[in-house]
Amino acid sequence: MALSEFHKRVLSAAVLLPPVVAAVYAGPPWYTALVVLFTAAMIWEWLVMARAQVSWLVLGSIYILAAAYVLFLMRGDDAAGRSLILFLFVVTWMTDTGAYLTGRTLGGPKLAPRISPSKTISGAIGGLLAGVGAGILVWSLAGETVDGQVVVAAAVGSIACQVGDLLESAAKRRFGVKDSGRLIPGHGGVLDRVDGLLAAALAVAGTGIWR
To answer: Which end of the chain, N or C, is less surrounded by CB atoms within 10 Å?
Structure first.
């Protein structure tokens, strides 16, 4: 990735993060509107990518809708839901950032060269450590109790985030596209930005931390 493209990613994050974080803090109906808006954008991008391949259209749409519904349920309307969504977002963001920076710095063997040639094993490890560490820190700062379940949820979410990223990369290769869309400069489409978050949400929900 060229440096100028990295700058685009930073600028896009600076523009997108404030309204997203504000919606998370505000809760319903603002957070609900955010989830609905992003879900509609993702479904549209998926329909355009998959085109007439019905089985892919159905499976991808179910996956997106299921993850979006989990994200909606996790937030709820109380402080605990806010802490959980912030935890999930931070785990995802820091996994992505940690993987990118570690991979660029250390390089080394590729993680899945046939799917995503730029991803490295060192990046995957760096992303895992960054995601888990940041998730635990945010959970603690939110005044929640840090225990084994939280550590497991952070680790599971970080790993799922990276798997979700690879899944979307594999889908884009199959459909012969570089990005899911062009809505976000430096990131492509909405799916390009939240592919890891979708998988992480489903995985973290499976740990039972949000009940």
So the answer is: C
